[in-house]
Structures are given as C-alpha cells and as structure tokens.
Amino acid sequence: MATMADVARSAGVSVATVSHVLNGTRPVLPRTRQAVLDAIDELGYTPNTLARSLVTSRTRSIGLAVSAISNPYFTEILQGVEASALESGYSLLIADPHDDPRHERKVVQLLHERRVDGMIVAPSAEPRELLAYLGRHKVPTVLLDRLVDAAADGAPRFDQVCAENAEPTARLVTHLAGLGHRRIALVAGLAGLSTTSERISGYRHGLAAAGLPVDERLVVHGDSEAAGAERATAALLSLAAPPTALVTANNAMTIGALRALRDHGLAVPGDIALCCFDDFAWADLFSPRLTAVAQPSKELGALAVRVLLERLAAPDRPTRTVRLPCAFVHRTSCGCPDQPPPAGPRPERPARHQPEQRTVRPQPAQQPVRPKPAQHRKGTAP
Question: Within a 10 A sphere around the Cβ of 218, how many other Cβ atoms?
Fold first, then answer.
C-alpha cells in the first residue's frame, strides 16, 4: 500500500507539501498541487482519515439526525445534505431519533462520540435535553426544518434552516375560500413542533384574510403521521356540520386523510376539496391531482450543510435563521379544472405570499359543495 512518503518521492516534493495538498492547510502552487494529485492517482494512495483527524482535530464528517427517514420529504432533504457534504469533502453519519426526545438525546450523543465536526438535527417536539447537550458540549449545530425558541436576547441559540410555513398555508386557505368554501378544516401536525404552530397560524391568517371566522372544531391534530390524520379526518367528518374543504399539513397526513375520505365514501373534489402542505413525487399521479405547497427539500438540505461549514470556519459568528420560500402547485383536488380559466381577480390573501404557478379565477357565486348524506359516511353518527 502506497504511503505519503511514496507520493512525495514520486511528485518530487516534501511529505509536508503532500500533507498541505491533502488537508488544505497551506496554499500550494498549482503546478506542484497537480504533481501531487497525479502521483496520488498513479500510486493509488488512500489518505489515512484517522491519522489525519489526529493531526487536524477534524474528521471531515457531519452527523445528521432526522426523524422519519422513510418520509419522502426527509428523504429529499437527505439527498441535498449528502450531495452538498460530499461536494465539500465531508462524509455523513445518519441517525433516526424517531421523534422521541430520549432517543434523540441518545443518538446525538453517539454521533458526537464519533467525533463528527458538526451536526444537522431536526429536533423533536420536546428538545430540551437535546439542546442542553449540544450547548454544554459546544457542538457546532444547524437545526433543520423545525425551529426552537430564541435565547433571552432574541438571537437563536443555534443556526437554523427551514422553509416558510405560515404564508404558504394561508395561501391554500385563501385559494379554497376564493372557490366559495366557508367551512375549511385543517389537519395539523404534532403539537409542539414549530412547523405545526406556524402552519396553524397561517391557517388562521388565511381565514382572516378571507373574512371567515375561526371554528376551533375544524382544527384537529393528525400528529404528523398517516394513522393520526386518518383518525382526525374521521372526527371532522362526524361533525354535525362537516367541512367542505380540507387542508392537510404534511404529506404523510395527506395519505391518512385520503384513506378516511375513501372509507366514508367521499370523492375529492366532488364531495370535499383537498389541498396539502408538501408536494411529493406521486402527488401528480393521484386522481384528482393534488394541489399542494412544495417545499424546496433538497435546497434546504444543501443550505444546512453550507451554514454548518460557515459555522465551522467562523465559530464566533452570530447565529442566524434562514428561511426558503415555498411554491404553490395548482392541480385539481381543490376543485379547479385541469386548465384554469383566463386570469381574473385573485382571492384576498396576506402579504408576501409566494406567487402561484397558475392563476385561477375565483368563483364567489359558487355554493360550497356539501358532503354526501350520512349514509355515505360509514360509522359516523347521524
């Protein structure tokens, strides 16, 4: 097996120069650098990562702790993190905290004990122990997707990267209101997550912008997973005055809501309109095609890596929270036709919403579509 000394002899340079080329610890003339790289390639030299880490105190590895890796949203985030890390010469160690605060603390400690240079973490709804550990050990960390409360001085305790949540949710609500719906329900995520609270806030903002009252019975929690959303949607359908439109707050809950609607014999959008937060690969294959908010998942993952590397390069820089905009993807589950009519006046919406991809003419004269009579809603009270 070739050694660093072999590379140095082949390239006609010192071992120190080879080290500088490999570790980027000192500028090297382009011609010299290329000679070293050619020698490495010719000899098949593989750097000793462990030995390098003992010298530099860096392992050039990043720990990633995100729950529900099987979720398409987090899968795309993972792709963005991995591509950006590899491009920057970093390897990736991955753990799934399962949204369990105790397990979360354990897996983050295990990643830290592997001497990762920094971490990217999507915190649980109760991240107190996690944050205490990261702060006590001064682990360079970027919080991804889910935010935590700021410190007493108003600055975030860690760097944070996430998508906009409130405004895109409000956009879904005002779109449905513009189509004539007056009873619009929200299947919200797991209580305690910033994404849940921000999307509930956006829902309320959208109702206010459309001049509609808030009916607390129309806000239910699906706990960010399919089974919970199925139960929550069934509860909505059992109301004496059930909703005529539904907003689901993530892709897993969209699946659960669709199951509940199917089991109650309701068709989308003929019996009830549906819009969802999170676009996913097969949303365009459903019948009807799902109107959705699309998050920039891969971009979020890549941005989290860049922010972490900037933190590693400048440990004392102020912490920051970076948000990326979402896109409104108009399809047909909201009750609009495949080909929207010519542009007309848009429904009222809060400021700073992202522009929709296609313009839809509001239909204020259209009466809200009511669900089918009770006999079509199996297992519900009359």
Answer: 21
192-206, 219-233, 349-363, range with the lowest pLDDT = 349-363
Share of the chain above pLDDT 90, in %: 66
Q: Residue 294 and residue 52: Cα distance in Å, rounded?
A: 42
* N-to-C CA span, the chain: 78
- Torsion angles phi and psi, residue 120, rounded to 5: -120, 120
- Give residue for tokens 């359908």: 237
Residue 21 Rama label (left phi>0; alpha psi -120 to 50; beta): alpha
Q: Is the pLDDT reported for residue 363 higher than 70?
A: no
Spatial strand order of the sheet with 327-329 comes to 219-221, 184-188, 245-248, 273-277, 291-294, 327-329
Contact 228, 248 (CB under 8 A): no
Higher pLDDT, 277 or 58: 277
Give the Cα-Cα-Cα angle 186, 191, 195 (nearest 5 degrees).
Answer: 70
Residues paired with residue 95 on neighbouring β-strands, in sequence order: 65
Please give the distance of CA 199 from its chain centroid, rounded to a whole number.
Answer: 13
Q: Which residues of 121-133 are buried (b: 16+ CB within 10 A; e: fewer)?
A: bbbbbebebbbeb
Query: For the sheet containing 141-144, what is the strand order?
Result: 91-95, 61-65, 118-121, 141-144, 159-163, 321-324
Give CA–CA dist 126/118, Å, rounded. Answer: 21
CB 296 within 8 A of CB 303: no
More confident residue, 317 or 4: 317
Counting DSSP H helices and E strands in the chain, the numbers are: 12, 12
Using an 8 Å Cβ cutoff, are 124 and 65 in contact?
no
What is the C-alpha separation between 271 and 38, in angstroms, rounded?
Answer: 67
